[in-house]
Amino acid sequence: MASTEDEAILREMDRRPLEATRQGNDRARTIRVVVATPLGHAGRGGIDRLNDAIFETIEARSQLHIHLDRLVTRGKGSLFKAQLVFAFALLRLALMRLRGQVDALHIHLSDRGSSYRKAVVGRVAEYLRIPYVVHLHGAIFEEFWSAAPPIVARAINRLFEQSERIVVLGQHWADVVCGQLPQVAPKTTILPNVTRTRQRGHVPDKDGRIRITFLGELGARKGTPQLIDALSLLANRPEWTATIAGNGSVDESRIRLRSLAIDGRVSIPGWLDSTATDELLCRTDILVLPSFAEGLPMVILEAFAHAIPVVATPVGAIPEVIEDGRNGLLVPVGNVSALAAALVRLIGGPELRRTLGQAAKRDHAQRYDIDSYVDQLAAMWRQITRAPHQALLYDPRLLPRRPMT
After folding, report:
1. H-helix or E-strand spanning residue 329
2. CA 210, CA 284: separation in Å to the nearest integer?
3. C-alpha 252: how far from its chain's center?
4. pLDDT digits (tens, 9 = 90+) for 83-124
5. Is it true that domain 210-367 has CATH number 3.40.50.2000?
6. Could you report the per-residue pLDDT of 29-57, keeping only the tens digit for each?
């Protein structure tokens, strides 16, 4: 007759194959994730660039068994058209849930209008019983949230509180969210932005000049006026040229360049698509981003992938990525003379440019590559969708019920 200890061992032996089978089935089951994003494929801005990289990587890795759909919540048109796009997005999300075409929702959250829209998306997901992740990006989200009217602040709080997971770009943003809502700390994860690895090499300038590049929205938040003023201080040095690329205050910036008589050395081509951006980075020697507020800019990580030394300001999660003097240079916010001095160091220091750029490229390979990032996202989505998805099939017994108050 078997002892109690023997019976326990036999039960454990019986349980293990079943558990292994259950885990294997969970990994093999394709889960459907809807990604709420502002503009959609090839949209302007870091969120859509990140999403494009995620979609491309997951589509190439069928073994992950993840099916992604974009849910465009803002669109590329006017404010009136944006309202129609948003209404259609809510309707589409409800239909996908009714048809069993969504297991999880990934909500990219920024500040201002994005917060209003995503709070509504989160509430709809809550009623439809769709588990969701909130992925925070907004550069001025901290200021927006703290100054928001009470009804808006409560809606944002609820969006975080009812989520299954919260993703932030760095410790700075974890402190912002968890400082306001300590109860969400256990489900908050730090995932810095990532980019694809770049195989193309650096293309030297045929005339030997050092090429300085800015990529982003031209205007006060990104420090474009200070950059133009700093470049004017270098006008007596003939060995550099600069490109200030992006949307925003394009005309104002061109006028300022002309007034400083450096428009012949600084070009402003406007917005560049991903192909043109990659081409520009291949022909860049220094990337500069003197922002006043940031989340974690994609362009810094793209520069890292290209082994380009970066000059930036210590705002948002940037100081968690750039270690001054090791893989880039940090200058005080709004300090034109310090910005100019940092550029002079790099213009006249080929060995410093090489050292900083190589350290940045190593960091990118170890910390900011897309493949390991996608693995972490896939694991997160599976964790919040353990129960198999089930089509509602318009059965009123399965329709969401308003929670009791």
Report:
1. strand 329-330
2. 8
3. 28
4. 999 999 999 999 999 999 999 999 999 999 999 999 999 999
5. yes
6. 899 999 999 999 988 888 999 999 999 99
